């Protein structure tokens, strides 16, 4: 399979690239900085400058974009819209590295993780921006998207256990009552989804077993 990973300089993207390459995928990384990934095919290009032509011929595109400062949070929406627009009407799948704040905590889907009183105030603007982008993504019936939310505790340097539990729209806890996953295990789930393609136009979630 031919896979493009966009915003490839981040840690989550790096794990996804390595996982995909270890499974024999042909990976092309797109990033703004110099290549700091395992990808042998690297295109130094800003996400907003990527065109339909750049992504032609890929089976899947992974969007690993992240913005953390107040003045850039809106780019979660604008970057995702840009990628959707250039993939519109194609069979190329778009898989999004999502957030956990928008996962629901009740069966009625009226309360989200970010609504809970113990959710850190510092992360609320980010969670709000990512939830908005997901809401907008749900309206795109012209793109074969899949949004993958990590567990609440998303650990950059956590171990690769090789095991995870696949969930849906609601926050899932493991047998220890934890909502935790490493970037490495998240990457396994991402690449599994690229391979199997079982969740078109759905949000799924993952937690360490």
Automatic annotation (TrEMBL):
<protein>
    <submittedName>
        <fullName>NAD dependent epimerase/dehydratase family protein</fullName>
    </submittedName>
</protein>
<dbReference type="InterPro" id="IPR016040">
    <property type="entry name" value="NAD(P)-bd_dom"/>
</dbReference>
<feature type="domain" description="NAD(P)-binding">
    <location>
        <begin position="8"/>
        <end position="192"/>
    </location>
</feature>
<dbReference type="Pfam" id="PF13460">
    <property type="entry name" value="NAD_binding_10"/>
</dbReference>
<dbReference type="GO" id="GO:0016646">
    <property type="term" value="F:oxidoreductase activity, acting on the CH-NH group of donors, NAD or NADP as acceptor"/>
</dbReference>
<dbReference type="InterPro" id="IPR051606">
    <property type="entry name" value="Polyketide_Oxido-like"/>
</dbReference>
<dbReference type="InterPro" id="IPR036291">
    <property type="entry name" value="NAD(P)-bd_dom_sf"/>
</dbReference>
